[in-house]
Backbone:
């Protein structure tokens, strides 16, 4: 559950300057997790470490880095359950408390936590060390390139000297994806307190009938391990004093008890704070007469609140009442056909790298409103939770994507057989859905981006169908599920057509038919003829071209702002001719940092905004276009 500060819960923020040192090869032997070296630097958390200092290694090396700080928990937290929570550490992490391993975690984009109640004494300092590993390979998501060729390189392995040089160079940390491998403690670190018996999870599902909505909820409760474990052999004052605060340790089962002090009560409030309905018990259904539905901006993204108490614990969750359905080649929100206008994005900014950036989130959502967009995809990983909260509130629709990007290693090897990611991918999907399930802004799950589906179509079908079924089974709201198909031979691909929404990334007029927008439109038409034959709604989740800001030309050649503007203007006309075509996401919202390469002058420059968020010429065209396209009923 997202951390909350309220009458029963507190947060100790561990953001700020931490001690930092990159492994120089001696960390393991010298046990830096126990003896953090005195010679170290101060680095800011939360943020990627890569661009904070001028050290070349920080940008290029494949390595572990060590973070360290002292922490004191104020005595006012005595008797509370304490949990150390990391919102995201990229990619793999180990956490040590006073030199002892507390927990480890795989994957850089989802939260993890560990209870520390009985491991620390309030009022007394303890040491926290985090080891973050930036290595990517065939077992990570996103996937690293073990073949050792740069993503945008010009390695010609036919040339003997090139082959030899690559061998000589050895192991590199090469992404099999097009964004900079920003790493470290990218999101907040907090110690969260709750009462010893606490609310562990809350699931909300809404159903709308003609005049009312049924809001069903399920509350999971938990108990601190200091009251659930046999702690007879524990002699710490901490545990003893905590126990004495807890009268019924015998009954600590992890589910709500019959004890009247530990029952679940739920109150549903409207936006003004008026009580709409109330209930008691771990699960139930509440009725909302004449509900105000959550609608994307400029409609009203109306949010209700569910206030849950359990014993002395309390939690408030904002949620929306809305329906999602895919029917007759349409994507329906609240029963009305929705048209997606927006972007693929990245979490990316100067100096902070992929570090959580709530200020930038506000700016980006403001620019989405300005340009008349209504949606974006969290390409290519789950974003920081604060962004989803903002979008719930501001009425921006989200396609929520796992970090499964780069599954494919050339036509020779079947990635579904050679990459050990199947179970891990499922685990990531599960955690993402568990994290984001209550957000009204999330309306579609994306299982991944641009895997190989062309060279091994049968293998691909087995792999993705399994995940597709799993996502449907996991999501209490049973949202539609998709994955994003790349520009391959779509006639060979068997997977895309099995998804609830066909999402395609296409670069006609850029990587193919380069510079020829007329031919690009022709190609788009031919391809859309193909998709029209299926009974599925289709949208483009990426199309675009690089434009260097300030680079102009009367005849609109590639890399000019004019080319980018004309590209969108003419291709969008093709989309307008097709009723089953339900949306357009430009690639990309803003320019972003990526791996260096011959096609990447100072990053990927396909942004409609520059990296510092200034509009390019195409932004003005899109604003005019999108302001004239309503959210609902555009193709009616
Ligand atoms: C794609 C990828 C995206 C890249 C983009 C590009 O197909 O999904 O990650 O950045 O193309 O600009 O090449």
Residues:
């Amino acid at each position: 559950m997202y951390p909350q500060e309220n009458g029963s819960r507190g947060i100790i923020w561990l953001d700020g300057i931490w001690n930092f040192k990159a492994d120089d090869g001696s960390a393991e032997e010298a046990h830096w997790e126990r003896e953090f070296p005195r010679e170290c630097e101060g680095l800011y958390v939360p943020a990627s470490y890569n661009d904070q200092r001028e050290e070349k290694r920080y940008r290029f090396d494949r390595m572990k880095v060590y973070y360290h700080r002292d922490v004191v928990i104020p005595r006012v937290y005595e008797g509370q359950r304490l949990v150390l929570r990391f919102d995201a550490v990229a990619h793999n992490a180990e956490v040590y408390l006073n030199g002892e391993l507390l927990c480890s975690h795989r994957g850089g984009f989802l939260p993890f936590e560990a209870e520390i109640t009985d491991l620390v004494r309030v009022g007394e300092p303890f040491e926290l060390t985090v080891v973050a590993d930036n290595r990517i390979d065939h077992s990570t998501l996103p996937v690293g390139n073990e073949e050792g060729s740069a993503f945008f390189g010009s390695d010609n392995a036919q040339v003997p000297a090139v082959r030899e040089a690559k061998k000589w160079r050895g192991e590199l940390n090469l992404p099999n994806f097009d964004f900079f491998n920003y790493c470290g403690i990218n999101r907040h670190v907090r110690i969260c307190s709750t009462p010893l018996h606490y609310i562990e999870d809350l699931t909300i599902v809404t159903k709308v009938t003609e005049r009312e909505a049924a809001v069903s909820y399920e509350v999971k409760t938990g108990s601190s391990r200091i009251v659930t474990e046999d702690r007879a052999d524990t002699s710490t004052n901490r545990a003893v004093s905590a126990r004495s605060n807890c009268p019924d340790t015998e009954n600590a089962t992890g589910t709500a008890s019959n004890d009247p002090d530990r029952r679940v009560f739920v109150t549903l409030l409207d936006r003004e704070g008026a009580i709409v309905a109330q209930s008691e018990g771990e699960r139930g259904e509440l009725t909302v007469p004449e509900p105000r539905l959550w609608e994307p901006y400029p409609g009203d993204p109306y949010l209700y609140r569910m206030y849950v108490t359990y014993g002395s614990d309390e939690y408030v969750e904002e949620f929306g009442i809305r329906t999602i359905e895919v029917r007759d080649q349409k994507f329906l929100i609240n029963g009305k056909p929705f048209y997606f206008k927006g972007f693929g994005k990245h979490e990316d900014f100067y100096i902070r790298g992929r570090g959580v950036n709530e200020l930038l989130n506000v700016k980006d959502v403001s620019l989405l409103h300005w340009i008349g967009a209504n949606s974006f995809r969290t390409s290519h990983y789950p974003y920081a939770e604060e962004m989803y909260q903002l979008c719930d509130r501001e009425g921006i629709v989200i396609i929520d994507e796992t970090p499964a990007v780069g599954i494919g290693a050339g036509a020779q090897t079947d990635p579904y057989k050679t990459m050990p990611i199947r179970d891990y991918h499922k685990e990531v999907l599960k955690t993402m859905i568990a994290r984001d399930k209550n957000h009204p802004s999330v309306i579609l799950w994306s299982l991944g981006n641009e895997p190989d589906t062309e060279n091994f179509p049968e293998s691909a079908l087995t792999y993705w169908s399994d995940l597709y079924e799993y996502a449907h089974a996991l999501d209490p709201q049973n949202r539609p599920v998709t994955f994003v198909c790349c520009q391959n031979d779509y006639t060979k691909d068997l997977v895309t057509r099995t998804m609830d929404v066909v999402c395609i990334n296409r670069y006609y007029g850029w990587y193919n038919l380069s510079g020829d927008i007329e031919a690009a439109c022709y190609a788009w038409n031919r391809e859309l003829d193909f998709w029209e034959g299926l009974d599925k709604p289709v949208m483009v989740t990426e199309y675009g071209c690089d434009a260097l800001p300030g680079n102009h030309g009367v005849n609109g050649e590639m890399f000019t702002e004019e080319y980018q503007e004309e590209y969108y203007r003419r291709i969008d006309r093709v989309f307008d001719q097709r009723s089953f075509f339900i949306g357009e996401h430009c690639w990309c919202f803003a320019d972003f940092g990526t791996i260096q390469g011959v096609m990447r002058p100072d990053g990927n420059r396909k942004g409609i905004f520059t990296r510092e968020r200034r509009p390019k010429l195409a932004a003005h065209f899109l604003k005019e276009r999108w302001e004239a396209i309503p959210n609902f009923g555009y193709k009616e």
